[in-house]
Amino acid sequence: xxxxxxxxxxxxxxxxxxxxxxxxxxxxxxxxxxxxxxxxxxxxxxxxxxxxxxxxxxxxxxxxxxxxxxxxxxxxxxxxxxxxxxxxxxxxxxxxxxxxxxxxxxxxxxxxxxxxxxxxxxxxxxxxxxxxxxxxxxxxxxxxxxxxxxxxxxxxxxxxxxxxxxxxxxxxxxxxxxxxxxxxxxxxxxxxxxxxxxxxxxxxxxxxxxxxxxxxxxxxxxxxxxxxxxxxxxxxxxxxxxxxxxxxxxxxxxxxxxxxxxxxxxxxxxxxxxxxxxxxxxxxxxxxxxxxxxxxxxxxxxxxxxxxxxxxxxx
Length: 315
Prior knowledge:
Elements: H1 2-26, E1 29-34, H2 40-55, E2 59-64, H3 69-82, E3 86-89, H4 94-106, E4 111-114, E5 126-130, H5 132-146, E6 151-157, H6 163-179, E7 183-190, H7 195-208, E8 215-218, H8 221-233, E9 240-242, H9 248-256, E10 262-264, H10 267-284, E11 292-295, E12 298-300
Parallel strand pairs: 1-2, 1-3, 3-4, 4-5, 5-11, 6-7, 6-8, 8-9
Antiparallel strand pairs: 10-12
Helix pairs in contact: 2-10, 3-4, 5-6, 7-8
């Protein structure tokens, strides 16, 4: 009788272990990784990723790349060792992160990239992002529309090596270069997608110019907001400042007149779409119909603030 009770207890414990394993499989762990949570844009993207993973029955494992490719690489390698069932990642630098992503693919872990595409790696399940070239073109088209007679322009470029920075700059030049010599970029330099650098680089640009520019265009809102502070600090008015990302703070400044415009690239939709693709594959083995999905960015001014994905967060 004692042996029978012991056998039942052991069987019960084994059942609990197997049950726990089944439940763990039912809630697959997914690495959600962004370049750095010091940027409000990536905080929003991370929150959207985590919410979507949980809504799809998974468990998100958060990775803050801390704007460091070695740190983000270490996070991916740790996730591979942990045995995650999938990875959704916005790479800090596309070339630097390629080996870690390749390692995940070789470990049969599906990878979806968001916002920043790693074109050099074969086998990535999908990429979801904004068409950043079109986003840069939207900035350029707005400048042409606002200043049909031409303009002088300061161009604050994004983080060196980041595909969105490269593509947005390309799109801006596509429009302005085609519009002729009347659109003159009088200063052009990276400010690293950083607000403090946006402020300091703009201050340096303004101090070196004989006359203030008519336009300051920035590859993200943080740099645009830094530029706005530099302009205010010098008591300048009438300079059109155009950002990119449609952060709540930027939307508020567009509403109140501090910024002229920002570009909405729908990061929440990018993230949720990427998670949907990843979880469809993890749960059902379903591959996306298209390997690359690109959303078209939209210029937001006072006239169409309601387009902003994060307008509800504006105070």
